[in-house]
Specification:
Structural class: alpha/beta
Distance between the termini: 23 Å
Pfam families: Acid_phosphat_B
Strand order of the largest sheet: 2-1-7-6-3-4-5
Order of helices and strands: HEEHEHEHEHEHE
CATH superfamily: HAD superfamily/HAD-like
Strand content: 15-25%
Protein name: Hydrolase
Signal peptide: 1-20
InterPro entries: Acid_phosphat_B-like, HAD-like_sf, HAD_sf
Shape: globular
Organism: Streptomyces aurantiogriseus
Number of helices: 6
CATH class: Alpha Beta
Radius of gyration: 16 Å
Oligomer: single chain
């Protein structure tokens, strides 16, 4: 890993700032109650809130996977920072997996669902990010990182475009999981699950 990539990964582990965990689709809205106010969020609180939402996601995924149509290629799209990896709590490399999300992802990948990761991370750390995801147990069917020109685009629009690209490869995106509104807006997923970011405290 280059010194530049190492510095980039380290910089991304600095806490930023995170809202109630919610799961939404065009027809339903589910809410996981957060257990702490924004100003006193800690690791245990975050994990409890993530688990509460994934307790809603797993039954949905089990039902949707069981209803796979003949020839249908199912996919889940996941954000990375503070969604699949413990970015603001995992001050090491490789960063640890966010266990509640990993458990759900493992169920999906063990049942033939492809996992695609769409992140605002820059392309310079694509290699170390891919390694990190695989190291902690995710099967990476595709990793989308921002190229030079993507850095000047709206993040939500960039992430929506990547989901469109995944659909263009013949996949049905049965779930989209992230911790920011920019991860989930723009459609192109049957159901979305919003992890807590406590009003922006988590990146």
């Amino acid at each position: 890993m280059t010194a530049v990539a190492t510095a980039a990964v380290t910089a991304m582990a600095v806490p930023a700032g995170a809202q109630a965990a919610t799961a939404t689709s065009t027809s339903t809205v589910a809410t996981a109650t957060t257990t702490a106010a924004a100003e006193d969020v800690d690791y245990d609180t975050w994990q409890a809130d993530c688990q509460a939402l994934m307790n809603q996601a797993l039954p949905y995924l089990k039902q949707r996977i069981a209803a796979t149509k003949p020839g249908e290629k199912q996919a889940i799209v996941l954000d990375i920072d503070n969604t699949t990896l413990e970015t603001d709590f995992g001050f090491s490399y490789p960063q640890p997996a966010n266990k509640p999300v990993l458990d759900v992802a493992k169920y999906a990948q063990d049942h033939g669902v492809s996992l695609f990761f769409v992140t605002a991370r820059p392309g310079i750390i694509a290699g170390v990010t891919d390694y990190n995801l695989k190291y902690v147990g995710y099967k990476v069917s595709g990793l989308y990182v921002r190229g030079l020109f993507d850095l000047f685009k709206d993040v939500a629009a960039y992430k929506t475009a990547q989901r469109v690209d995944i659909e263009s490869k013949g996949y049905t995106i049965i779930a989209n999981i992230g911790n920011s509104a920019t991860d989930l807006s723009g459609g192109h997923a049957e159901k979305t699950f919003k992890l807590p970011d406590y009003d922006g405290q988590l990146s």
